[in-house]
Amino acid sequence: MPQGTAGRIDAPVRRTAHAPLFAAQASAADARGGHESLGVQQQRCRLCSKRGGLLIALEGRPTSLLKCKECGVAFVDPLPDPATISEHFRNDYITDDVHLEKVYGDLRRRALERIAAQVNKQRRSGRILDVGCAGGYFLDRYFDSRKWEKFGIEPSRYALRRAASRGIHTYEGEVLTVELPDSYFDVITVAGVLPYFREPNCELHILQKALKPGGLIVLELPLGATQVWRHTTPIGRMTGGGWRSLLESPHLFYYDGKSLRLLLSQSGLRLRGLSPSPGNEQSRLLHQLLFRSYFWLSSAVSALSAERWMLGPGVIVTATNS
Predict the structure, then answer these.
(1) Measured between alpha carbons, how far is 279 from 101 in angstroms, rounded to an integer?
(2) Most buried one in 113, 122, 259, 296, CB count within 10 A?
(3) With 50 as the cut, is the pLDDT of residue 230 above it?
């Protein structure tokens, strides 16, 4: 059995980075005089690596949001300091069971149910790895221990203790630093975590190598365009988009269908399907009603267009190790 609960690895985190953590990069942005158009045009896209196709989607200090005309991805520039956010997420961001079970469990229930349904429809048993497993709510609730051997990657020491108490083999750290065995897992789930990967090409390739040949990977994440809409328009904020600027969001990358397809292809994974994800439960009744209506509209559009059109609020991606 690979290194698990008995041998954890501390590592830079990939889940989030709140506004104060971005401040660590302020001097880097100031040193280069901000984001002038010429400088942006000379940069390479962090996903497709092409030069000359970047636009400033949202400008700010110390960070801006850049969008690639070639592959469609948007990303924060500069990225936050990894050492600063590593310490925060290892020790500070989850400190009690109420927060752990509600934020990473109950409020995610509708999305997690759909992810589990995708897995159980295609696989009945085996080894399953959940990237960003938090306290193990997802694996514990939806996968029978008599059929599944469960593993999780998570940076929070507090959350990992909870996951281990549920019988989950745990890796402390993140994808770039934990030692995963090759061709070992039947299923890997990445629920709500992909936008926090600092090096998505590299990290998804690591997960691809850890999958058995023909193994299944399921990604769930918010659509980038939906996130921009919910944070920058009055109607979007009515669906629970929040008051803060998109540049204060914890996400590092924002994906659309085109950029997701490219990322999968670069990582040696074969796309099997895209379907809408309902996103998180909303705290206010009006927000919840609007959000659910939005999701059902998106589901209808996706079905009628044979998955060519995806409106969000999130997307579930299924792929296999080709």
Answers:
(1) 16
(2) 259
(3) yes
Sketch out the chain's domains with CATH numbers: 86-321 (3.40.50.150)
Round to whole Å and give the CA distance between 32 and 44: 16
| Pairing verdict, β 253-254 and 211-222 | unpaired
Distance CA 99, CA 93 (A): 10
- Identify the residue whose tokens are 């809409």: 229
- The DSSP symbol for 195 reads G
Q: Which long-range contacts (CB under 8 A, 24 or more apart) does 55-59 make?
A: 57/228, 58/228, 58/232, 58/245, 58/246, 58/247, 59/35
308 vs 274: CA distance, rounded Å: 9
* Assessment of whether the complete model's pTM goes beyond 0.90: no
- What radius of gyration do the chain's Cα atoms show? 19
